[in-house]
Design brief:
- The protein is α/β, with parallel strands linked by helices.
- Helices cover 32% and strands 18% of the residues.
- The strands form two sheets. The protein has a three-stranded mixed sheet with strand order 3-5-4. A two-stranded parallel ribbon has the order 1-2.
- Helix 1 (13-24) crosses helix 4 (122-139).
- The longest helix has 18 residues, at 122-139.
Length: 152
């Protein structure tokens, strides 16, 4: 699930990477979602029995590495629950409302430019292909890399 604002340069990288994943992953094995932001109704999508893993893709301001991947768990009892949620809070909502949440990871890409516009920063452009390969390795069983590996 890639999320971000496509009209805020690097902020849209999560959605751009989700679009690339949708082109590469077989639709019968993976559902790729793209959203402007995480909202409560998305917890239904991740709580489905057919979902065994969830990958959230966002950006982190001034991140130095091309991508950072780490495991996340349901949490956020005291978090904000409005029109914009954290992935952890979305997982917690899925757990509480539907009794299940999948194993989940958050992958962040660098965000150096978040001004109005669609042009990506040099760092974000360079990070996308590397992050795509790492996401494919995590999501495709035929690619055998450990999902516990944190960084490139």
């Amino acid at each position: 699930m890639g999320y971000g604002n496509l009209l805020r340069a690097d902020d849209g990288c999560g959605r751009l990477l989700a679009a690339d994943l949708a082109k590469r992953l077989p639709p019968q094995r993976a559902q790729v979602l793209s959203a402007h932001q995480l909202t409560p109704e998305l917890c239904l999508e991740i709580a489905r029995e057919s979902v065994d893993r969830a990958l959230f893709i966002d950006v982190a301001r001034h991140q130095q590495r091309p991508f950072v991947l780490h495991r996340i768990r349901p949490e956020g009892d005291k978090g904000r629950c409005g029109h914009q949620l954290s992935p952890e809070l979305l997982l917690m909502l899925a757990q509480r409302l539907y009794g299940r949440s999948p194993r989940a990871w958050l992958l962040t890409l660098p965000a150096y430019r978040t001004t109005l516009g669609e042009e990506l920063s040099r760092q974000a452009q360079a990070a996308l292909p590397q992050a795509l390969e790492r996401c494919l390795a995590l999501l495709e069983p035929s690619r055998r890399q450990s999902p516990k590996r944190n960084n490139p």
